[in-house]
Amino acid sequence: MSLERPAITLTHVRKAYANGTVALQDMSLTIQESQFVSLVGPSGCGKSTVLRLMAGLGTLSSGSIEWGEHQSQRQLAFVFQDAALMPWATVLDNVLLPLKLAGQPRSKALPTVREALHLVGLDRFAQSYPRELSGGMKMRASIARALVTQPSVLLMDEPFGALDEITRSKLNGDVLELWSQKQWTVVFVTHNIYEAVYLSNRVIVMAARPGRVVADIAIDAPYPRTEEFRTSALYNEYCREVQDRLSEAMEVKQSTPVYSQVSPRPSI
Ligand SMILES: Nc1ncnc2c1ncn2[C@@H]1O[C@H](COP(=O)(O)OP(=O)(O)OP(=O)(O)O)[C@@H](O)[C@H]1O
């Protein structure tokens, strides 16, 4: 797996919204192909704005976003916290939607849809309706819908934020497995430092007002990341480092340790 070729490069990006809010100020960041990069930071620091700008949803006030030689904005898929499924359509038809919109005949699209459903473990639920699915299954359907477009870049905006801890942890493992198979470049927004450290080979810590990068932490631990990794000293050290940098970013010093695996996982 190459970690050397730039996939997306942000250079001195500034984003001010029409109401004057400066969401991002002088943000520079290079994401390499096949990296799994998480963005963490306090509410309002511009994480979603970064993803939206990468996706071409909105204009930069200044600076630039460039795509590497082998990846392009056309090859990206976006997964949101809200699975945003059409309630009147079956899981199969929901997952088929991007291909239908791209003009593919149903008969040609169906094998791709079935493969995506298989990859996320929803084969048996193709004919179910969203109301019949759990929160985790809805999110799997949403990921399958992203998969059918065969993206090389996956932008994920707090995809598991609304899920319980056990479901989140299972989906974390599944996403890592898909990532290792597909070699996507992933940019993942989360409020959960444990999730960020578990998944990523890089965690970018941002601060707010204005939104900017304050730390770029390499998570130098091998994949596959097993359950043992979650209880290892190395994992806890990385979580502590990210937490410390976040506390600095939020100008709130933690007075008590929050790293125990038995305590609730902190969110920001
Ligand atoms: N369309 C908009 N118009 C005006 N201001 C906006 C708009 N979208 C976002 N903002 C502001 O820009 C800043 C960054 O917002 P953004 O949603 O990118 O932050 P975030 O880090 O993703 O927040 P959260 O973690 O709460 O989702 C915030 O101050 C927000 O209020």
TrEMBL record:
The keyword ATP-binding applies. It comes from the Bacteria. InterPro entries: AAA+_ATPase, ABC_transporter-like_ATP-bd, ABC_transporter-like_CS, ABC_transporter_ATP-bind, P-loop_NTPase. One of its GO terms (cellular component) is plasma membrane. One of its GO terms (molecular function) is ATP hydrolysis activity. It is a peripheral membrane protein. Residues 8-233 form the ABC transporter domain. Its main location: membrane. Keywords: ATP-binding, Nucleotide-binding, Transport. The keyword Zinc does not apply. It is found in: Cell inner membrane. Belongs to the ABC transporter superfamily. Nitrate/nitrite/cyanate uptake transporter (NitT) (TC 3.A.1.16) family. This is Nitrate/sulfonate/bicarbonate ABC transporter ATP-binding protein. It comes from Desertifilum tharense IPPAS B-1220.
